[in-house]
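Notes from hallway chat w/ T.B., transcribed later so I don't forget. T.B. wanted the structure written out for a chain they're using in a teaching module, and asked if we could keep both sequence and structure tokens in one place. Agreed to drop them here.
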Amino acid sequence: MGAGPCRRIVLLVIVLSTVVLLVCPVVPAQAYYADLGITVDASGFVTIQGQTNYPGLLVENTEMYTSKQQSMWLLNITKQEVFSAFVYSLTLPQGAVIRYVRSSGSVQIQDTTGSLVVHGVGENVSLSIVLQYQLQKQGSALLDNLVYFVLIVLIIVVGILLVYEYRTEKRTRQVVPPSKTTAPVVEWKGLNPRQQQIMRLLTERAVPLTQTDIQRELQIPKASVSRNLRGLERRDLIEKEQIGMSNLIRVKRP
């Protein structure tokens, strides 16, 4: 084949390639994004709202993403396509306790007014949210709180009773000093006024006195004191005790 036909073939290939490029331009791959708010109710129904260009991702009250085995729930929202960027907030029902969580990108769990909220964000990865959780029974939680409250009240009451009993016992054990009272006035029949004064003095003092003490206290002559003491001794109303050179005089013990 000569040089002319070859040049014509090359020129034809170039023209055909140009036509193909003009008629069938290269279509770039689809870039997905998502900004989602996801809620799950106590019955396992999922609602996904927000903005996204991924077809069919936004749904309302669907059970396609949840399953339950005994008391354990499993939430699985997984899309194999790559998302250039996504962000989501996943709100679980009241009383939910997370047992396991795995998400593409980064994830953070927040407790808001009794409901757990899972925040996630990622770039250039597939969207994947796999979460296992369990619901606590509200009645059981209330009963537990009531039991704790009753126990606290009982502890406080027992403490108050113990303190009261301790203080009462302490007051009972305290020794109350005898109060000083004035000896009652006694009239001794058959005694003269001097003898009655001596008996009253000895009774009020309640301690032995010498004859000098009696004379000084009553301001009566020594001879009168001696005479009246002998009369009281004969009546067996007083007794004397010799201490050295002095006689101690007291009311005779019964």
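Follow-up for T.B.: Residues 138-173 form the longest helix (36 residues). Might be a good example for the class.
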